[in-house]
């Protein structure tokens, strides 16, 4: 199903389409089996660095295999930075792409995004753009609210000028394990204003991993060292009631996989077959996906 249709259906019916990145084959296996088991639509995301990790040759085979599965699955380029990488993803068979010009000056973001929309739409591919900066600081120090958060008025103009199908916004979340400085907070007040300006455009929330304390504890207990991990699962529990129609999670799956593999290896020092600890990782990914689909996205039985 074309991604934009998936997102508009979710927005209308009050749930969120989970958009989960797969950094390796095991994470893909875990996510896919849970999406089918729970009858949830799913967006499988690949970043440029993940594309390089898989290699185009093998990834195109994976994409073709996924496209044969009878289930609402969209294969999406995450954080494409150039028209060239967008073209590469479309060649590989992706049905949707993100062009992320969010760190560019506004006019350049508009220009780049519009060029991607013109190209992708001519190939029947949906486009997600991004406006606002998902970071709490840059080289000059902490960013002000005005520098970070998406301006609702500008969002309206951006959508009109570029023709994007969905818009990623900055309302307080961040990528990676350290999500918040000070009190964790998502600016639903800004989101409301954005929704008023672009009522028909599905909103995408990046940096939405929950960063469960137990997972971090396990990683550190079994020999890892992850400092200052800050997330908050309560902040997202009503997100499905808003126009957020796609929620991006990657870090949670990396953490779940890593903690299970560390635990398995520590408890089974004699094992050296990657499929043994790989299976432990897949099981952890499944648990991670189940909770997020059922409790955050409410997308089970919506396929
Ligand atoms: O938002 C970024 C994603 O988590 C992708 O990260 O480039 O390390 O695959 P990556
Ligand atoms: P997390 O780092 O919170 O998983 O965010 C992932 C993401 O936004 C991918 O685009
Ligand atoms: Zn992201």
Tell me what you see in this structure.
The strands form 2 sheets. The chain has an 8-stranded parallel β-barrel, surrounded by 9 helices. A two-stranded antiparallel ribbon has the order 6-7. The protein has a single domain, classed as TIM Barrel, CATH 3.20.20. It contains 12 helices and 10 strands. With 303 residues, the protein is α/β, with parallel strands linked by helices. Helix 5 packs parallel to helix 6, helix 10 runs parallel beside helix 11 and helix 11 packs antiparallel against helix 12. The longest helix is centred in the C-terminal third of the chain and has 24 residues. The protein binds glyceraldehyde-3-phosphate, 1,3-dihydroxyacetonephosphate and zinc ion.
How is this structure best summarized?
The chain is α/β, with parallel strands linked by helices and 303 residues long. It contains 12 helices and 10 strands. The strands form 2 sheets. The protein has an 8-stranded parallel beta barrel with strand order 1-2-3-4-5-8-9-10, surrounded by 9 helices. Strands 6-7 form a two-stranded antiparallel ribbon.
What structural class results from the helix and strand content? Answer: alpha/beta
Calculate Rg over CA atoms. 19 Å
Strand content bin: 15-25%
| Sheet having the most strands | 8 strands, parallel, barrel
CATH homologous superfamily identity: Aldolase class I
Number of DSSP helices? 12
Strand order of the largest sheet: 1-2-3-4-5-8-9-10
Q: Which ions and ligands are bound to the chains?
A: glyceraldehyde-3-phosphate, 1,3-dihydroxyacetonephosphate, zinc ion
CATH architecture annotation: Alpha-Beta Barrel
- The tally of structural domains comes to 1
- Report helical residue fraction: 40-55%
Helix and strand run: HEHEHHEHEHEEEHHEHEHEHH
**How would you sum up the global shape?**
globular
By DSSP, the count of extended strands is 10
Low-confidence stretches: none
CATH level-3 fold name: TIM Barrel
CATH class equals: Alpha Beta
Average predicted local confidence, pLDDT: 97
> Separation of termini?
10 Å
């Amino acid at each position: 199903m074309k991604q934009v249709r998936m997102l508009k259906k979710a927005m209308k019916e009050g749930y969120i389409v989970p958009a989960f990145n797969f950094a390796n084959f095991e994470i893909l296996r875990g996510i896919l089996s849970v999406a089918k088991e729970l009858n949830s639509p799913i967006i499988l995301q690949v970043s440029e660095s993940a594309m390089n990790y898989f290699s185009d040759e093998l990834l195109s085979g994976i994409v073709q295999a996924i496209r044969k599965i009878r289930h609402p699955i969209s294969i999406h380029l995450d954080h494409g930075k150039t028209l060239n990488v967008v073209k590469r993803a479309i060649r590989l068979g992706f049905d949707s792409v993100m062009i992320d010009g969010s760190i560019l000056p506004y006019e350049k973001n508009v220009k780049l995004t519009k060029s991607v929309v013109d190209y992708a739409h001519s190939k029947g591919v949906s486009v997600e753009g991004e406006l606002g900066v998902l970071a709490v600081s840059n080289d000059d120090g902490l960013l002000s609210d005005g520098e970070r958060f998406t301006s609702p008025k500008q969002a309206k103009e951006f959508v009109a000028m570029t023709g994007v199908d969905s818009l990623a916004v900055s309302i307080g979340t961040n990528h990676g394990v350290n999500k918040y400085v000070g009190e964790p907070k998502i600016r639903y007040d800004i989101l409301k204003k954005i929704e008023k300006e672009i009522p028909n455009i599905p909103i995408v929330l990046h940096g939405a991993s929950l960063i469960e304390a137990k997972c971090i504890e396990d990683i550190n207990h079994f020999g890892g060292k992850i400092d200052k991990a800050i997330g908050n699962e309560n902040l997202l529990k009503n997100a499905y009631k808003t126009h957020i129609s796609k929620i991006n999670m990657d870090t949670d799956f990396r953490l779940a996989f890593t903690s299970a593999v560390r635990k398995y290896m520590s408890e089974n020092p004699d094992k050296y077959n990657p499929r043994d600890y790989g299976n432990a990782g897949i099981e952890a990914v499944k648990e991670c996906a189940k909770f997020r689909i059922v409790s955050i996205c409410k997308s089970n039985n919506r396929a």
